[in-house]
Amino acid sequence: MTLEEVMRRLEALGSEQTKQTFIRHGAIEPLYGVKIGDLKKLVKDVKKDQNLARALYDTGNSDAMYLAGLSVNPRTMTKETLQDWANKANWSMHTETTVAGVAAESPFALELAREWMDSSDELIATCGWSTYGNYISITPDEQLDIDEIRRLLRQIETTIHTERNRVRYKMNAFVIATGAYIRALHDEAIRVADAIGKVHVNVGPTACKVPEARAYIEKIDARGKIGVKKKTCIC
């Protein structure tokens, strides 16, 4: 498929209702409003052509950018391309899902996560926290820097309530990821979850809710899934 063919397919799959839903969640034009499930049906065609996947992201169309993230091979991404993707992402779905998922599975996961987490740009900072959280979810514990993650938990404990809006959301998610995926830090994550309590995030005109970290971790524990890693964080 050519770029033009894919864009025509996306336009045909889009709906005004889905478009308005994405806009309420923060999406910025241009976009057609394609459901994620429909985007996934196109992955098998796009992933055969990695140049096409990257070209889709460069269109700036939100649907095309998400499809690019589903289709690109993270192992082939350069640090420069990942940085470019982060810079071009203009709303939370791309910084926290598209770019973060690809970055987490790339050879530059930790390097970029650490750099982005310290950014003065809120979207880039959320991308960093999400990248690190995703990396935790797919990486064996013996390959993780447990001391660094413990320090990050303590940072969250002392700063989360004074952080920027979406950064608070991803810090809370980081606590959940740590408690769910790292057995050695499960108890520490629970302690931090109790310390931070309810995290308030402005989610705009949506029905989204911020999960309470301890309760969420306990649900995972009840299913016997603590420490069970995911095969991929790209979704």
TrEMBL record:
<dbReference type="Pfam" id="PF08713">
    <property type="entry name" value="DNA_alkylation"/>
</dbReference>
<protein>
    <submittedName>
        <fullName>DNA alkylation repair protein</fullName>
    </submittedName>
</protein>
<dbReference type="InterPro" id="IPR016024">
    <property type="entry name" value="ARM-type_fold"/>
</dbReference>
<dbReference type="InterPro" id="IPR014825">
    <property type="entry name" value="DNA_alkylation"/>
</dbReference>
